[in-house]
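Input record (Table S2, row 168):
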Amino acid sequence: MTNQCAIALGSNLGNSLATLEQALKIISQTPGINLVAASSWYLTKPIGPPQPDYLNGCAILAVEPTPEELLVLLQAIELQFGRVRIKESRWGARTLDLDIILYGDLIINNSDLIIPHPRMRERAFVLVPLSEIAEDWQEPVSQKAIAQLVSEIDCSGVTIFQPSELNN
Ligand code: ROI
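Output record (7,8-dihydro-7,7-dimethyl-6-hydroxypterin complex):
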């Protein structure tokens, strides 16, 4: 019994492209997880305080783990890439950020896990990549499709990544 889940990947420290591609490989090789689709990588203007541009993308996974188990798995992968949450400011730069965006049509509101991701509906760096691979997926809180949500926001800070552009 598997569930369709959408995750967002982001990085703006170190070799972001290598980090994101390795992270996606580790995720897809995890028992109980199958990679269904991966978006292009996008170069995105930072939301929050001034910091380097981000590389962002999304993936659709078919998962056996529960949302809570998946969160633990993703956080372990973040740590493998040297992410130290305590040292990072909440809105600061990070080597690897893995967020659960959607898990089927579940709505979860725990202290440590909120699904759908509470800010996904306003974030072009999530919605643009996600619309590439899941445009018809209904976001269960707004009950709008991803394609509809993306049409309602400003996406000017999000462009498809060309590997020669990233110089940090
Ligand atoms: N901004 C962009 N463009 N991409 C991110 O992945 C991202 N992640 C964050 C904050 C600091 C909110 N800004 C971001 O955590």
